Amino acid sequence: MFVTSAFAQESAPSADTSHAATEGDTHSSTGVPAEAHGTFPPFDPATFPSQLLWLAITFGLFYLFLKRVVMPRVGGIIDVRNDRITQDLDQAAKLKGEADAAVAAYEQELAEAKTKANAIGQQANDAAKAEADT
Length: 134
Hints:
- It is a single chain.
- The chain has one helix at 48-133.
- The protein is rod-shaped.
- Helix content is 64%, strand content 0%.
- The chain starts with 47 loop residues before the first helix and ends with a helix.
């Protein structure tokens, strides 16, 4: 019902020797058999049920292959990637906190150095004024 017989040639065509070619004869035949076997099998409505069955079987097998082999691998890769991204973001936040702390310490030391420099400058200025007054 679902499998049709192939239209294979059963025997090789025999050479017809009764019409020997003579010089000056003209022939109008092309050598192509006159009888055709019908339509191209994929377009033949008689083979549609068989084609639909094999389509369903092939699609089902392809779906199972994707579901059981390909998608778990892809899902695993996506999970590993998400974990890696999360770890990288956590590490970036930690390093940003350390960098912010280093910048704050630098700014505090810079402010202390400016204060010391101003104090030294003020002392030198006061000493110079005191020496100039005496």
